[in-house]
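Re: the request from the purification team.
They wanted to know what the chain is likely to look like in 3D before they choose a buffer screen. I agreed to run a prediction and write the result into the notebook, where they can find it.
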Amino acid sequence: MTELPRKTAARTARLASIPLGVAGRAVGGWGKRLVGQSAEQVSAELSAKTAEQLFAVLGQLKGGAMKFGQALSVFEAAVPDELAAPYREALTKLQAAAPPMSIQSCHRVLAEQLGSGWRGRFAEFDDRTAAAASIGQVHRAVWHDGRPVAVKVQYPGADEALRSDLRQLQRFSRLFQALVPGAEVKPLLQELSERMEEELDYRIEADNQRAFARAFAGDEHVLVPRVVASAPKVIVTEWAEGTRLASIIRDGEKAVRDRVGYLLAEFHYSSPARAGMLHADPHPGNFMLTADGRLCVIDFGAAAKLPNGLPAIHGRMMRLALDGKSADLLELLRAEHFVRPGTEVPADHVYAYLAPFVEPLRTETFHFTRRWMQKQAIRVGDLRGQDFRTGRSLNLPPQYLMLHRVLGGSTGILCQLDAELPVRDIITRWQPGFQSASPEF
């Protein structure tokens, strides 16, 4: 493959094959029911084949399709156990791998971005692809001063592919919502579209990574590789090695999973105060555990600017929900436009909806499990339940959308890790507004 498939018709046809395939398998499923297979057998088989097709197509197309699949991957823990295995396997594949571009295309991009003498910048350059992701692939190299480096090269046509994919994926948002119940698919796609231009310019990613690297320089818990050079479609950073989170999720011992969970939560909650930004692409492919026990964080293409740290309103809502102050909680939600205008909703219903989300803060340590996340997904997604109706009355203001997605995504990873950690202590230290029992209107 020399470049991303860019023609809209070709990419649309591949994406359109997903709902068509689902419909065809559903018809086949009815046939199997007629010849005696149980509903559970048919459902599990359909789920496995649908997951396989869905994420095979997303991974094959790279671009926006693969980026969307990676964003969904953190919600794997919300899929019911009896259906989770095929999703888990297919989603994991999207976290760190995609078909590479040809080396000729790679060299052409390097020459365009770093100049015709680009090879002179490197003492060594490995033509083999070390990693491939949604809009770029990584090569291992040695910089001219002897430093091992990672060279990320953007796929030719990534911009066109990204725009095309995200437009088409929005047409199928209801299908994806049904397949991955823990995700809010429509706003997720909208947000990916809005931030697309930032991720396509590697100079922005380089600036983000420099800010994080400065903030965490010398940190005993977090490693952010330093940026060596950057251009619009190429970024060179110091090389880092470690065990990928997907491997730890799959095979890690309990002490390691707990350690990684703690480091991840500490990083996400501390970085707005320390770096003025939030790493906004929380899927396991972007994190590693180094040999010396640090959390290595990579890929800063998506970052939320939070120069004043995490919003205090978020902390006050947590505290009021934790303390059971339902009337004050509803008043704060209305004042900050979290309740849809003109909507009347009882304070106790709002409290019942939000209280389970702060359950991790009620004890010194909390065990994040798939079962817990599944319970939350089922609770808020049950069309017959009060929580679903209450959720329809609530609103997520645009300025909180990315924060909500990142914290939800990192919680999904904690559940995949099956990690137990002192999350209340982390929130107490880093979340403004949480220690105050009364909101400041």
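For the purification team: The longest helix spans residues 8-34.
Please add any questions underneath this entry.
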